[in-house]
Design goal:
single chain; mainly alpha; two-stranded antiparallel sheet; globular
Length: 112
Amino acid sequence: MLDSDLVAQHRQELRRGSTSLACLALLATTPDYGYNLLGRLAELGFEIEANTLYPLLRRLDKQGLLTFAWDTSDARPRKVYSTSPEGVELVALLREDWDRISQALHQIGQDS
């Protein structure tokens, strides 16, 4: 039986890279602010803490992969993020990579 801590560690590593892709893909379809994005990610099985998401959003913005606009319609202004054209291009490239890796892993499983 596998050690549950070991499994959790490897799952976290797998999610770490895929969370960036998921954020960029989701924000390419529907711009949103961080709190809503947390819920959308959770609905898809990406359990992520707010203290992990917000630094990720800042990093993606700094890299030019996201843009944001201030929503001042409520009492408290919020950043509404969307994926930049460069981010959309990266999503397409990373999805191709993801599909290729996934196919290779399925092939490995069939060859065993």
